[in-house]
Amino acid sequence: MITIALSKGRIFEETVPLLAAAGIVPAEAPEASRKLIIGTNHPDVRLIIVRATDVPTYVQYGAADLGVAGKDVLLEHGGAGLYVPLDLEIARCKLMVAVQNGFDYEGAVKQGARLRVATKYTECAREHFAGKGVHVDLIKLYGSMELAPLVGLADAIVDLVSTGGTLKANNLVAVEDVRDISSRLIVNQAALKLKQDRLQPIIDTFAATVAARRD
Ligand code: ATP
Ligand code: MG
Known about the structure:
Blueprint: E1 2-6, H1 10-21, H2 30-33, E2 37-39, E3 45-49, H3 55-60, E4 66-70, H4 71-77, E5 82-87, E6 93-100, H5 105-110, E7 115-119, H6 122-132, E8 136-140, H7 147-150, E9 156-161, H8 165-169, E10 172-181, E11 183-188, H9 189-194, H10 196-214
Parallel strand pairs: 1-3, 1-4, 7-8, 7-9
Antiparallel strand pairs: 2-3, 4-11, 5-11, 6-9, 6-10
The structure holds adenosine-5'-triphosphate (ATP) and magnesium ion.
Pfam family, one: HisG
Keywords: Amino-acid biosynthesis, ATP-binding, Cytoplasm, Glycosyltransferase, Histidine biosynthesis, Nucleotide-binding, Transferase
Subunit structure: Heteromultimer composed of HisG and HisZ subunits.
């Protein structure tokens, strides 16, 4: 049995065409069925639907052989025990610093002010501000980061931005790039050795599909 860990939403939707290229077709959509284990047209390939932040954990412990996880998630997880052979170039977005419209971020940084930063991405944020020599107090949140500056919880947030629509709707502006984000294929290292004959063709097909999209 080959088990592939995916999160529902954009990662599932953007992985379906890659699976199709490898001849793997899910039996149903996770939203429709609410099932957490989804079969495929291959009797020995199944998908498991887990929280985006949990995908590396399932693969690390071998409960899944393969998984698709955002670089943001991998940076926070640390990536122990994972082989990351491929940038799938899907679910692209940017990790950015954002503040409430009118907040003088540049000025605060220049003055050496101690900034309060709310984020789900504490590891990435810590590294980013340390690299700039900016002192920050990090406040860990698990969602709706956009709210924090509006109610005085934080001066700034570090969050994922794609269109900027959510920032704009909440009177926030992006002031700095932290890094580009896309989703990666992750592989359990032991499974790669034990099931190489079945995993390598999937990895190779994904790689060829991603490369073909580029040109
Ligand atoms: P939830 O939104 O249910 O709390 P989540 O935020 O962990 O869960 P998603 O929003 O589905 O999960 O995000 C999954 C992955 O998709 C993220 O880890 C990130 O890599 C990527 N992603 C998140 N937001 C965006 C976005 N706006 N545009 C493109 N990719 C994104
Ligand atoms: Mg989300």
